[in-house]
Amino acid sequence: MRTVVIAGGTRGIGGALAARLRQAGDQVLALGSEDADLTSVRQTTELISRLPDRIDALVLAAGRFDQRRVVTAEGLEQTFAIGVLSRYLLTEGLRPALAKAASTPVVLNLSGTGGIRAGRIHWDDLQLRHGYTMFKATMQGARANDLLGVAFAARESRIRYVLYNPLLVNSGMHRQLRQPLRTLVGAAAATFGTTVDNAAEPLAGLLADPPDAPLTALRRGKPVSLDRSEFDPGTAERLEAVLTDLAARV
User: Fold this and answer.
1) What CATH class is the domain 3-244?
2) Which residues of the chain have pLDDT under 50?
3) Which of 160, 178, 155 is nearest to 68 (CA)?
4) Contacts of 206 (CB under 8 A, 6+ apart)
5) What is the CA radius of gyration of the chain?
6) pLDDT in tens, 174-227
7) Judging by DSSP bridges, how do beta strands 106-110 and 160-165 pair with one another?
């Protein structure tokens, strides 16, 4: 029986994946807001200390979006805090537990990978204090998660890291938006998006049979070349150093 930790595992794609894995006999720790506020460095760090000392897989599916810039109690922009910094903290904090897995351990990061060139890292304003938009924050998060995968794989040979973009899924995320965008996005997801159950199926397959490569990027199952500029190792090192420093100062 595998032990799988799913951040954001109480609803949406994470919830559907948790249900599928439990049905298959896995022990699943589905983390939601009742377990910890993942926008908080302190709470995320405390959560890591409460998790098992051996796990087989870590799924990063938690995210939050807002059309307005929201600042956490620790002074961080909300989208960045939960979508980038918490994922970095969880992966690094649970690395020793993953290393103890009996079979091939895997980190599965549900992100916006796939060569979307609109996004970039705003090095001089990571918290987007100036000119915040939901699109800018989301795209920065997508680029940052690509780099998190690169940085992790550069220092790890046994644990597999998979970046997965499920594309449009009718996951209910539109409920975080304000009207009229909530209705428009919800209608588009219902019409053109896949269901959370269908989106979870290939994810379960990746956890059961992880890729051989240290880092894999997939866009709804189709490989994305790691030769793209979005996966630059030097930039990945830079981001890792920034996040390490940021977490220490919060």
Assistant:
1) alpha beta
2) none
3) 178
4) 106, 108, 162, 164, 218
5) 17
6) 566 667 666 765 565 566 567 888 889 999 999 999 999 999 999 999 999 999
7) parallel
AA identity, residue 78: Q
* SS3 labels along 151-163: HHHHCCCCCEEEE
Q: How far apart (Å, rounded) are the C-alpha atoms in residues 52 and 50?
A: 7
The pLDDT, as a whole number, for residue 177 is 60
Q: Which helix (H) or strand (E) holds 6?
A: strand 3-7
Contact 73, 40 (CB under 8 A): yes
Task: Give 39's contacts (C-beta < 8 A, 6+ positions apart).
Answer: 64, 72, 74, 76, 78, 81, 82, 86
**In what helix (H) or strand (E) does residue 7 lie, and over which residues does it extend?**
strand 3-7
169 closest CA partner among 23, 13, 1:
13
User: Cβ of 167: how many Cβ atoms within 10 Å?
Assistant: 13
SS3 71: strand
pTM: 0.94
| Element spanning 4, H or E | strand 3-7
Amino acid symbol at 71: V
Q: Kindly list the distances between the CA atom of residue 40 and the CA atoms of 13, 26, 72, 104, 124, in Å, as whole numbers in the listed order.
A: 22, 28, 7, 30, 22
Q: Where are the domains of the chain?
A: 3-244
Residue 121 corresponds to which tokens in the numbers above?
């890292």
Residue 62 has a CB neighbour count (10 Å cut-off) of 24
Q: Give the whole-angstrom CA distance, residue 61 versus residue 192.
A: 21
